[in-house]
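A protein record pairs a chain with a discrete description of its three-dimensional fold. The following entry can be read in just this way.
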Amino acid sequence: MSKVLRRCAAGVAAAAATVVLAGCEPLDSAQADDVMSSTSTAVEAPRFTEPETTAPSLPETTPDSRPLDERSTAALTALADLPVKGRAPKTGYSRDLFGQRWSDDVDVEYGHNGCDTRNDILRRDLTQIATKAGTRDCVVLSGTLNDPYTGKTIEFVRGSDSSSAVQIDHVVALSDAWQKGAQQLSSDERANFANDPRNLLAVDGPTNQRKSDGDAATWLPPNKSYRCTYVARQIEVKAAYRLWVTQAEKNAMTRLLTDCGGDAPEATEEPATSERTTDRTAAQPRPQPLVETPDSGGSAYYANCSAARAAGAAPLHAGDPGYSRKLDRDGDGVACE
């Protein structure tokens, strides 16, 4: 070891911190570890306790231990309290309206913990994780995901060509939220919504892309065993942020949760306000059920534009769930205009 390096080592050990002395080259973490190890017996360093700078451990998600039928019943009860309205126009929607991507400056769980939201969710949802040195155990380099959307096991490795294999999905899509009440939220509330762990899941990247901004009436996870949990989570998030559902969305959620053993609360009979209102309600087309094709990965299919409009999905753009050329008569990429 050179005289300069020995002098640096002594300085580092004596201070018990990464201090660069005059005439010393800065050391990277691996070199610093080697130096400290090689000088630990030669230099008597005072005991020094560093302040806690490691990103705090995230609490493990505790699975809901209630039977599926009880969870489904609770979700149906919460669903009954959500307002039912049509979609508001998507006009003016921008991802930027929901704040900086993966911001830590939010007032929800994990907020202000010194780690960005994406890495928080990776650390929560992945197992056997490895983190990058020098990031206070924040940045996840690798790990294993048991994907709830497909049921597959996915090995995550951070990299420009590999990170997209695992994406963080907004269970209630931001665009869907924008059209169902988020326009009335404050900018801080929208930032909280976009970073709320209740609304975030690490999932298979390609499946997340196929979901796009679909709601329960137009997209469900291919893994059928997860669908009731997925829909119940959407209801929880929408209730927390005062969002609404469309009638088609509520119908799809009710069908699914009932099939999972849930009991919907008894509806209170409301008197018709007028004969005209009753007639208009009766004349509305019945929402068409979600039909999945074997290779759709959960995508929607609409027999005609009336079905798409009843589901609150029109207009459909090329690439949207349910879009097909037969519905796009003028071939301009927008169906059921």
